[in-house]
Design goal:
60s Ribosomal Protein L30, Chain: A; two-stranded antiparallel sheet
Length: 138
């Protein structure tokens, strides 16, 4: 593991009433390294800023997480270097779908996570936005 993860847990234990399976933790300790601050990622292509053609929260989350992974790799890192994600969704009913997909990308990583339900995002067709922070070790 790239960083020290304090009090790791899985959401299936903390939210047994929901079909979630996310590896998270209460705190992450990093030492040295390079910090990567990512802009909130939305369901659009990084190269041409075109939105994906889907209004499904799960499909939108796949694109968002693919963008995060791509940006980390371009910075010389990997998903295991994620330390924090902030998840914005426009409808609480999308929570399970969004977190289920996000969980596929953070399996074994255990970042800290904050989730917010917001009235709207920058474009009305966006259902999810995730900003992420990573620290790439020296």
């Amino acid at each position: 593991m790239a960083h020290e993860r304090i009090r790791t847990f899985n959401t299936r234990d903390t939210y047994p009433e929901q079909a979630l399976d996310n590896d998270l933790c209460q705190a992450v300790v990093t030492r040295g390294g390079r910090t990567v601050w990512m802009r909130g990622q939305c369901p659009q292509n990084l190269d041409d800023s075109k939105n994906i053609d889907s209004h499904d929260p799960g499909e939108q989350t796949h694109k968002v997480m693919q963008n995060i992974r791509q940006l980390l790799e371009e910075a010389g890192g990997r998903m295991e270097h994620l330390v924090k994600v902030v998840v914005y969704i426009t409808d609480v009913r999308h929570r399970e779908a969004v977190y289920r997909v996000m969980g596929e990308y953070i399996r074994g990583v255990h970042p800290v996570s904050t989730g917010l339900v917001v009235q709207a995002l920058a474009r009305p067709e966006w259902l999810v936005e995730i900003d992420a922070t990573a620290v790439i070790p020296d």
